[in-house]
């Protein structure tokens, strides 16, 4: 098999030899290391779907850590390994050396623990995308350049493209799928983020949702509560009281949330795990960015996703977001009436 790589990564002699002799039916055991939170777990799903397509006979193990158990895609792998990083030293040592006779190892994490597991696991070939290139020579046979300017889920697929694999587009997440003709007139807002500074203030969200309720009267406007206690919708109490088309949706389990999100018209949020879930269900999204590089979380293979950000990094205002929402709704649902009703005299 040809190694489909030129100058876009690292390839040593062992990696080139392995690729030249690769027979997919001979690959029996694959270890995928992915130690990440909710959103990045969602972005991992297309890689696992395509990995199964490319190596249909292989036993696939996904290795993570105890901190990141929510949304682990256990439905797409044969086994989940949780790396013990907090137990007794003997237990941690066993956990690091629990894998043997691995044909292919993918390190999709690039953390200290993932590198240690990569080092301790014997494998015929090891692939990764370390931020520091020195780890290519120390740990990997094939190294991929990790881009901040392409959607994370697509970057992961580069590991399989080196082998000549043709991924499906739009990407397949094996999740409930949004159908535009069946979408309810519901705009969802998720105003939280793992790092508070990545999201608008509660005052900004209240102002945005209150104004959107006026300008988009034919839609129900729903603030989705998060799983943490502090991710409550109580701050929106006054807006809910003023507008019949504004409600707060209680937190939901992952499976229920996926189906509910897929039946919504659009999600408005910052860089959050919930936005990644919306991307995984192909639900239209309007992302709000001012700290995170937007391109890494903005799929361009579908026309139903957009991003609001300023080139100078300023925080987008209510007017910017409402304009982006109007343009997205018109583009995605052209059969619906003009969605926005501006106040008299407003441009």
TrEMBL record:
GO molecular function, one term: ADP-heptose-lipopolysaccharide heptosyltransferase activity
Superkingdom of this protein's organism: Bacteria
Keywords from the UniProt entry: Glycosyltransferase, Transferase
Pfam family name, one: Glyco_transf_9
Gene3D superfamilies, per the entry: Glycogen Phosphorylase B (3.40.50.2000)
One annotated GO biological process: lipopolysaccharide core region biosynthetic process
GO CC terms: cytosol
The protein, known as: Lipopolysaccharide biosynthesis protein
Lineage of the organism: Bacteria, Pseudomonadati, Pseudomonadota, Gammaproteobacteria, Oceanospirillales
């Amino acid at each position: 098999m040809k190694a489909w790589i030129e100058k876009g990564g690292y390839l040593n002699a062992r990696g080139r030899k392995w690729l030249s002799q690769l027979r997919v039916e001979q690959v029996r055991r694959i270890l995928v290391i992915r130690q990440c939170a909710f959103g990045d777990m969602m972005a991992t799903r297309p890689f696992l779907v395509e990995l199964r397509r490319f190596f249909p006979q292989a036993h696939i193990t996904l290795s993570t850590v105890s901190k990141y158990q929510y949304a682990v895609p256990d439905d797409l792998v044969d086994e989940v390994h949780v790396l013990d990083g907090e137990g007794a030293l003997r237990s941690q040592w066993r956990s690091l050396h629990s894998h043997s006779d691995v044909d292919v190892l993918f390190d999709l994490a690039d953390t200290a623990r993932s590198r240690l597991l990569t080092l301790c696991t014997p494998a015929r070939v090891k692939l990764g995308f370390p931020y520091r290139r020195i780890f290519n020579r120390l740990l990997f046979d094939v190294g991929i350049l990790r881009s901040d300017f392409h959607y994370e889920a697509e970057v992961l697929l580069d590991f399989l493209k080196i082998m000549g694999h043709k991924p499906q587009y739009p990407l397949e997440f094996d999740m409930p799928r949004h159908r535009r003709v069946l979408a309810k007139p519901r705009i969802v807002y998720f105003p939280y983020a793992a790092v508070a500074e990545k999201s608008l203030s509660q005052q900004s969200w209240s102002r945005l949702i209150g104004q959107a309720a006026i300008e988009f009267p034919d839609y129900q406007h729903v603030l989705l509560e998060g799983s943490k206690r502090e991710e409550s919708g109580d701050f929106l109490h006054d807006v809910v009281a003023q507008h019949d088309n504004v409600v707060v949706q209680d937190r939901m389990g992952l499976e229920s949330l996926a189906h509910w999100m897929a039946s919504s018209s659009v999600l408005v949020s910052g860089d959050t795990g919930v936005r990644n879930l919306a991307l995984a269900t192909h639900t239209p999204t309007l992302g709000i960015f001012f700290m995170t590089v937007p391109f890494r979380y903005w799929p361009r293979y579908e026309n139903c996703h957009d991003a609001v950000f300023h080139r100078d990094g300023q925080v987008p205002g209510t007017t910017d977001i409402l304009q982006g929402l109007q343009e997205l709704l018109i583009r995605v649902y052209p059969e619906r009436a003009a969605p926005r009703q501006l106040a008299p005299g407003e441009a």
